[in-house]
Structure formats: C-alpha cells, structure tokens
Design goal:
Length: about 80
C-alpha cells in the first residue's frame, strides 16, 4: 500500500502504529511496458463494480495477437 500522505520517517513509534487505509474514488494505472486490452477490460469491470473511476495507460498498448507475437520474438535464438 502506498499512501503519499503518510510520514516518510520510520521511527519505532510509527512502525507500530496501525496502518490507516485511505479510500479513493479516482486513480491512475500506468504500465511500463505492454499494457493490454484484456487488462483494461478487467480494470473497467472492477471500476464499475466498485464505483471508482480509473484511467489506464502504458508505454505500449497491445492487442492479444501483438502480445503473443512479442512473446514469440523473445523465444527466438539470436545467432
């Protein structure tokens, strides 16, 4: 869990303090690397169920065929 408002010090007193979770209604998910349509669909479905709004992005957006092609290229031996 990442809470940007939490204190950045780690003293023994704060280490034992209970973690307070902050509710949110809007968030951003960014994938460094290939972001996929299936992941986006699952995230949108979750957001609709929970009443949250999520923005999704990545350095590349891949459809399933492009993803499998990238995996195939990784499996090739270089000579």
């Amino acid at each position: 869990m990442l809470d940007p408002r939490a204190a950045r010090t780690n003293t023994s007193a704060t280490a034992r303090a209970p973690v307070r979770r902050t509710q949110f209604t809007e968030g951003t998910v960014f994938v460094v690397g290939g972001a996929g349509y299936v992941e986006y669909g699952n995230l949108e479905e979750w957001a609709a169920k929970t009443g949250r709004r999520v923005t999704y992005g990545g350095t590349e957006i891949w459809d399933p065929e492009s993803f499998v092609s990238a995996l195939r290229d990784l499996g090739k031996t270089q000579t």
